[in-house]
Structure formats: structure tokens, C-alpha cells
Amino acid sequence: MADTYIMGIDLGSTTSKAVIIKNGTEVVGTSIVTQGVGTEGPQKAFDECLADAGIKKEDLAMTVSTGVGGSRFKQADLMINELKAHAGGVHAMYPEARILLDIGGQDAKIMSINEQGKLNNFLMNDKCASGTGRYLEVMAKVFGVDVSTLKDYDERAKGIIPISATCTVFAESEVIAKLAEGADIPSLIRGIDTAVAVKAAALVRKLGVSGPVYMSGGVARNTGVIRALENELGVPVKASEIQQLNGAYGAALYGFENLSRSRRNRQI
Ligand code: ADP
């Protein structure tokens, strides 16, 4: 039988991500485009993922979309709710995961997951930029660095300069003022990473769950936030190996399940 390729595509507010899986397991292509819903990012992520896998659009058995822009992507055959996609993605990689924290560009979600990888409960912060990737992007701009380098500064920090303002706009002014006073940049960046972790920890506690926390979303690529979160919560925090691609991966897995089910039904 010919190989079955399925694409999962996660269209977020700031970033478009795609994953192609072969025969339901092997990841053979990925793409991350830092343009989200409403831009050409979704189409770019689709095309780049096909190119990465070395296949054509016609070779795809199915495309499953997810994320805030999931319903608007015309190339998709199916759509899956992003919470379900994230739960399914993390469960496939870490069957023991019961708590998943997803921090994206403009929101943060905490989910509890059962033994079958199904969503039990969730809470979301989509009202306030602090505690999301947006906050980190605003701060990275103040330092004139890319958001991906914040973790390197954090690693070099010998101390921490806490940020007291909770609102992103005021926190930005506070950071600018501290910089002007000659504050140590790595310590200031550790303070920024910690501010995100404090918000995320509050969300985790609000859901009333305990035990190891698994993380997905772009912010899970920032090891400074992960370390600060471990300090805040006092439990291990493990970033999914595919962090930012977890939702797209979960969508692709959902597509494979769906296809296998309809093939089985046809045989009956
Ligand atoms: P969304 O799905 O909401 O568009 P993502 O889950 O893709 O968001 O996460 C985007 C956020 O991830 C960015 O705002 C940024 O803070 C963070 N991010 C993206 N790439 C990196 C990286 N290489 N290192 C650290 N953080 C990153």
C-alpha cells in the first residue's frame, strides 16, 4: 500500500506551523512561519512543509487545520479544536502527561488531560498580553534582540531584577527605565522570564492541578521561562520536544485516526 501523508496545520495569532506525518507516526516535514492568521503565513507554512517533506500537495491524503485561524484555511479537509489538538499531540509523545501548559503569541492555556489523551478541563488567559509570548516580544524589542536569544541571556544571569509592573505597557517602561540606570541585562531578562512564569503559575494553580507540567507553544522554547516556572510551582516542567509544533502534530494525528476509521468502515 502507498504511504499515507497527513498534514496538520496550526494557524496561530502570530505564527503558522505545520507538520506532515507519514503512516500515522513518523514526522517527515515541518515548517514554522512567523506570520499568523490573516496574513500569507498559513499558505507559506503549507507550502514550506510540503517542500520540507519532499512531497506535493496531491500526495497528501488529508490536511487538518487547528488554531485561531483553523476555520478559515481553505486547503483543510477537516478542522480540530486547538485544545484537543494540543492534548492529542502531547499524549502521543508523553502518555504520562496529565497537565499541559500552552503559551503562544497572545494567549496562555492550561489543560488537564486524562489517560486516553482527552481533555478534562482547561483555563485560558487571552485578556492580558503579560504572561504570553507577546510580552517577551515587546521586551526583546527593547533590548534590540530576537526573542529566541532571551534564554541565552537568562542563562548568564548572576541574579534577578524583578519587574514590578504587571501590565505589559508599564512593564516595558519599567524595563526601559532600569536599562537607563545601567541595570545588568541578563538579570533584567531573568526578571522578565520570571514575570511570565509567575502569570503562568497562577493559571496552573487556578485549574487546581498538581504534578509535572508539560509545556507546548512557542514560549516553551524559552528555557529561562521553564526554569522560572519550575521554581514557582516546585514541580518538574518539561517542554515537549516539538514545543511550538505540538498543536499541528496533534491535528495531523487526529487526521490519521479519522482516515483509518473511515477506511475501516468502508471495509465493513
Ligand atoms: P501562536 O500559535 O499564538 O501564534 P506560538 O505558540 O507559535 O503562538 O508562540 C509564539 C511565541 O513563541 C512568540 O510570541 C515568542 O514569544 C515565542 N517564540 C517563538 N520562537 C521562539 C524561539 N525560538 N525561542 C523562544 N521563544 C520563541
Brief overview, please?
With 268 residues, this protein is of the alpha/beta class. 42% of the residues lie in helices and 21% in strands. β7 and β8 form a beta hairpin.
CATH structural fold name of the largest domain: Nucleotidyltransferase, domain 5
Extract low-pLDDT stretches: none
Q: What's the average pLDDT?
A: 94
- Main beta-sheet strand count, sense and barrel state: 5 strands, mixed
CATH class of the largest domain: Alpha Beta
- Write the CATH homologous superfamily of the largest domain: ATPase, nucleotide binding domain
The backbone outline, from C-alpha atoms, is globular
Tally the beta strands.
10
Q: How many helix segments?
A: 8
How does this structure look, described?
The protein has 268 residues and is α/β, with parallel strands linked by helices. The chain has eight helices and ten strands. It is globular and about 70 Å long. The protein has helices at residues 41-53, 82-93, 133-143, 150-156, 168-180, 185-207, 223-233, 246-267, and strands at 5-11, 16-22, 26-33, 60-66, 78-79, 99-103, 108-113, 119-125, 213-216, 237-239. 46% of the residues are buried. The chain has two domains: 5-93 and 245-267, 2-Layer Sandwich (Nucleotidyltransferase, domain 5), CATH 3.30.420.40; 99-239, Nucleotidyltransferase, domain 5 (2-Layer Sandwich). The two termini are 19 Å apart. Helices cover 42% and strands 21% of the residues. Helix 2 packs across helix 8 (246-267). A five-stranded mixed beta sheet has the order 3-2-1-4-5. The chain has a five-stranded mixed beta sheet with strand order 8-7-6-9-10. The mean pLDDT is 94. The structure holds adenosine-5'-diphosphate. Adenosine-5'-diphosphate binds next to helix 3.
